[in-house]
């Protein structure tokens, strides 16, 4: 049976200095399935809005003390994306225009019927939804070509069958796989096969950011939370609301962020940095790691309760060395994609070159294979790539001794690439197919021992 998307009530803050109007609006809007909080003044509304997240505020324009326009300005300063609907008396059209210029989403003229205000609410929420969908579709168009998963081997068929089966649920998924196996591709397939497919998928590599920056990116922050926080910023969990959030290298997060992530999974809410109010989020979480999280739990490096929350359905991606039969298909796919991107004629791999690719163990998995194909296409002038061309790229001429380690091979490969790039580490990182920050970390780790 198809699972229905969980519906979270939209919360609205209604502001008016007339208690009778407030009570009437609260009762009427709650009948329309909105969650309603009321305030009798602009000052009270601002205090409430600073303690609890509201996607929408309905406020009268004329009130004693802080009026609706002043409240609008304050709300927009703290949350530029907040929806504000202004209620104005008949004959004050100029004030309504001023409100729209100040960022109000709509205005309603008194007297009005409740049907009119619910109609306007549906319109502004729909406009906001379409704005987010438009952003999502633009991103989806650019990602579509790269989302293709290639594989006809038994292990890949079993993996994709499992992915398609669990995608239809809303369970939290944990993807395990070595670096370069395609964990993000699997996460995108899970999203695209789920009922959330028309919403966006947000991705973040936890190991790419320091703890303080990672925390503010995930959960957002309030104006003044730290030096340089000049305005409120939504976190990625809020941006992913209604869709899917893919957290790569989740095993690298600190104990502090583990606690906040556990809260999100338990209560579907977050607290931005520097704030005390909670924000409800409706997100399906997909985690990924190349670590053994059970071992991390035993060592006290990862919370056991968070592990069980994340590991509801584990998905294991086989390394390329365990599905070598897929290599010819992958090479063909990469040749087509790279030739199109570089706007050059497609090149052919000789049988000897293909055999060499099949014999190699690919410690960097599919990502390393793609980099090898791209370098072959760029560096070789002839239309056919030979065995000799491949041996220069994957270093099969390195004598392998029984005692050689993966670390030795990694050091040799990095040294040779940096040497060929004349010491340019940015260029070397591009050739190796890794981010410059990753290369610097590897250099520090490998050459400091």
How would you explain this protein's 3D organization?
By secondary structure, the chain is of the alpha/beta class. It has 3 domains: 11-132, Response regulator (Rossmann fold, 3-Layer(aba) Sandwich), CATH 3.40.50; 148-318, P-loop containing nucleotide triphosphate hydrolases (Rossmann fold, 3-Layer(aba) Sandwich), CATH 3.40.50; 326-448, Helicase, Ruva Protein, domain 3. The protein is built from 19 helices and 16 strands. A 5-stranded parallel sheet has the order 2-1-3-4-5, with helices on both faces. Strands 7-10-13-6-14 form a 5-stranded parallel sheet. The radius of gyration is 27 Å and the shape is elongated. Residues 1-6 and 396-402 have low confidence and may be disordered.
Outline the fold blueprint.
Layout: E1 11-15, H1 19-31, E2 35-39, H2 42-51, E3 56-60, H3 68-78, E4 83-89, H4 93-101, E5 106-110, H5 114-143, H6 154-167, E6 173-176, H7 183-192, E7 201-205, H8 211-219, E8 220-221, E9 233-234, H9 236-239, E10 244-248, H10 255-267, E11 269-270, E12 279-280, E13 284-289, H11 293-298, H12 304-310, E14 313-316, H13 327-342, E15 348-349, H14 351-359, H15 365-379, E16 384-385, H16 387-394, H17 406-420, H18 425-432, H19 436-448
Parallel strand pairs: 1-2, 1-3, 3-4, 4-5, 6-13, 6-14, 7-10, 10-13, 15-16
Antiparallel strand pairs: 8-9, 11-12
Helix pairs in contact: 2-3, 6-7, 10-12, 13-15, 14-16, 17-18, 18-19
**Strand proportion:** 5-15%
Largest sheet: 5 strands, parallel
Overall average residue pLDDT: 85
Tally of helical runs: 19
CATH superfamily of the largest domain: P-loop containing nucleotide triphosphate hydrolases
Task: Give the class from helix and strand content and strand pairing.
Answer: alpha/beta
Radius of gyration: 27 Å
Annotated CATH topology of the largest domain: Rossmann fold
Strand order of the largest sheet: 2-1-3-4-5
Q: Poorly predicted ranges (pLDDT <50, ≥5 residues)?
A: 1-6, 396-402
Rough outline = elongated
Number of domains: 3
CATH class of the largest domain: Alpha Beta
Which CATH architecture of the largest domain would you pick?
3-Layer(aba) Sandwich
Number of E-state strands = 16
Query: How helical, in percent, are the residues?
Result: 40-55%
Distance between the termini: 56 Å
């Amino acid at each position: 049976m198809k699972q229905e998307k969980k519906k979270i009530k939209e919360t609205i803050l209604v502001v008016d200095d007339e208690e009778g109007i407030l009570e009437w609006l609260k009762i009427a809007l709650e009948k329309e399935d909105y969650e309603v909080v009321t305030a009798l003044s602009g000052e009270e509304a601002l205090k409430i809005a600073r303690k609890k997240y509201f996607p929408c505020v309905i406020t009268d324009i004329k009130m004693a003390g802080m009026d609706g326009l002043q409240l609008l300005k304050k709300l927009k300063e703290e949350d530029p994306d907040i929806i504000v609907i202004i209620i104005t008396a008949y004959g004050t059209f100029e004030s309504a225009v001023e409100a729209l210029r100040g960022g109000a989403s709509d205005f309603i003229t008194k007297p009005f019927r409740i049907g009119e205000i619910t109609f306007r609410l549906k319109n502004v929420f729909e406009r906001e939804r379409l704005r987010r969908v438009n952003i999502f579709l633009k991103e989806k168009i650019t990602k579509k070509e790269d989302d293709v998963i290639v594989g006809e081997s038994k292990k890949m068929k079993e993996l994709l069958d499992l992915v398609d089966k669990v995608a239809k649920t809303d369970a939290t998924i944990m993807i395990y796989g070595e670096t370069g196996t395609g964990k993000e591709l699997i996460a995108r397939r899970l999203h695209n096969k789920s009922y959330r497919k028309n919403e966006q998928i947000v991705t973040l590599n936890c190991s790419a950011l320091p703890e303080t920056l990672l925390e503010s990116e995930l959960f957002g922050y309030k104006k003044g939370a730290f030096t340089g926080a000049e305005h409120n910023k939504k976190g990625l969990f809020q941006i992913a609301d209604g869709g899917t959030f893919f957290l790569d290298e989740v095993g690298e997060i600190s104990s502090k962020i583990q606690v906040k992530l556990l809260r999100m999974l338990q209560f579907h809410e977050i607290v931005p940095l520097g704030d005390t109010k909670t924000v409800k989020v409706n997100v399906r979480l997909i985690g990924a790691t190349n670590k053994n999280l059970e071992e991390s739990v035993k060592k006290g490096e990862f919370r056991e309760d968070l592990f069980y929350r994340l590991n509801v359905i584990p998905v294991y991606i086989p390394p390329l060395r365990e599905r070598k039969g897929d290599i010819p298909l992958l090479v063909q796919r990469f040749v087509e994609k790279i030739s199109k991107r570089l706007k050059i004629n497609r090149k052919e791999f000789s049988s000897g070159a293909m055999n060499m690719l099949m014999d190699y163990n690919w410690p960097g998995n599919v990502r390393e294979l793609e980099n090898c194909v791209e370098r072959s296409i760029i560096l070789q002038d002839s239309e056919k790539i030979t065995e000799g061309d491949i041996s220069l790229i994957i270093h099969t001429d390195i004598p392998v001794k029984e005692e050689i380690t993966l670390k030795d091979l990694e050091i040799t490969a990095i040294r040779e690439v940096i040497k060929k790039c004349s010491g340019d580490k940015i260029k070397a990182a591009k050739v190796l197919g890794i981010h410059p920050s990753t290369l610097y970390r590897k250099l520090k780790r490998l050459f400091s021992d």
